[in-house]
Amino acid sequence: MRNRNSVACFIGAVMIAASAAAQVTPAAGYTPPDDTPKINVGAVIFADYTYVESPKAKDADGNVINSSSFNVTRAYINITGNLNHLIAFRITPDVSRETSTTSSLSGSQLFRLKYAYVQLNLDDWATKGSFVRAGIQQNPYTDYTEGIYRYRFQGPIFVERTTGLPSADAGIAARPTTKATADSFNRMPTSSDQRLTLARFRAPLP
Questions:
Q1: By the number of CB atoms within 10 A of the CB, which of 6, 53, 193, 197 ranks highest?
Q2: What is the per-residue DSSP string for 54-88?
Q3: Domain extents for the chain?
Q4: Full-prediction pTM beyond 0.85?
């Protein structure tokens, strides 16, 4: 009888513990990360209207005119998304006009892969905004400069034109972020994020 009572008490204790464990809720104010898969599709179009004041040109009838034209020099199709709050990706085809006069495709629209990478977000282990990325991705310097360069629609940035520095390449990049305080940087808000991107690329893509 004592053995049966002991077994019954043990089973009752286990059931009470299991019930208590099932009632455990996240701490107040905690919001679980959103792990819903998402895919976003967008586009970036580089277009302009060009009017040539000088030199003058002649039309088919021999009249002197000022040349003018609407141009669409490049278009990106951005496919971005995430599988969960840790893994994100980007695939960006690039459609641009071949302008080299020595190519047999001069004047044609070329389709190529601009970006294709997967990204591991490190928000669970490091400061929010930190990540590791692998694949064909932005050159950190070019990406930063194009973000503040207002005339990208006219052509590549100066460094890319003069040195051949690629705007994208295959490799691995990591970006750790840290919180800066006003005590460390004068006139800087306490909530600013200081970001440093470290990248390792192979030889430029052809």
A1: 197
A2: SS-EE-TT--EE--EEEEEEEEEEEEEEESSSSEE
A3: 32-45+73-201
A4: no
